[in-house]
Amino acid sequence: MGKLFVYLYSLSLTCFFLMQTSLLKILSVISPKLAKKALLKMGEGVTMTQNEKFKLEDWGPSFYTWTFVKTSLGNIWQSLGDEAFVGYPAPDTPLYTLDCKKTSMSQFYKGSKPLVLDEFKQVVKDFSAVADFLVVYIAEAHATDGWAFGNNVDIKKHTNLQERLAAAQVLVKEDPLCPVVVDDMTDITASRYGAMPERLYVLQSGKVIFKGKRGPWGYDPLAVRAFLEKFN
């Protein structure tokens, strides 16, 4: 049943992205003001309008490009490998520490203490006594040679593990307050957790107990906060 939902949801996303991009492209030609209004509304949904680092001009036009469509469809295709379902065993995928030592998801379980995948600083601070946190750095969502934003970090698509590890060091400089590991170059973690371009999970004793919606629209730290309050 879980895999059927993955397939149906992926099909609906494919239709949505194709329709959205087509409409935005048409609006940008016949009514640039209306296109801008639509982009700002989209930006609210993915918190882009709340990020002081980016202006509309940095990210907005990218949403009606072929690169956006190709990247989105690639993410959807990869996420068809999603095997992480609430109440079922969490995929024990291979990971690498930042000093290039091979490990796996299960190595970060500590008894029955919940393990939160991905991170957000305030939640880490507020719930560090309740749960452990882990950032799994996967393929770069906005590589400069892919679906790029203006005024963003200069990271190209990873072609080998060393490049991915180096890119993860950029994230570490932001002080995530928890361990950071990287997916291997087969992108197996991103695939089996349906995590492209981003997703939040809570694991406990080797099982998935919370599964957030697929980002960017479904990325919701507040939902994780509400879930963790049950353990506080």
From TrEMBL:
Signal peptide: none
GO biological process: hormone biosynthetic process; thyroid hormone catabolic process
Family annotation (PANTHER family): IODOTHYRONINE DEIODINASE, TYPE I IODOTHYRONINE DEIODINASE
Role of this protein: Responsible for the deiodination of T4 (3,5,3',5'-tetraiodothyronine).
Keyword Transmembrane belongs to the record: yes
Residues spanning the membrane: 6-27
Reaction catalyzed: 3,3',5'-triiodo-L-thyronine sulfate + iodide + A + H(+) = L-thyroxine sulfate + AH2; 3,3'-diiodo-L-thyronine sulfate + iodide + A + H(+) = 3,3',5-triiodo-L-thyronine sulfate + AH2; 3-iodothyronamine + iodide + A + H(+) = 3,3'-diiodothyronamine + AH2; 3'-iodothyronamine + iodide + A + H(+) = 3',5'-diiodothyronamine + AH2
Pfam annotation, one family: T4_deiodinase
Keywords: Membrane, Oxidoreductase, Selenocysteine, Thyroid hormones biosynthesis, Transmembrane, Transmembrane helix
GO molecular function terms attached to this record: thyroxine 5'-deiodinase activity
UniProt KW Transmembrane helix keyword: yes
Similarity section: Belongs to the iodothyronine deiodinase family.
Annotated protein name in UniProt: Iodothyronine deiodinase
Family annotation (Gene3D superfamilies): Glutaredoxin
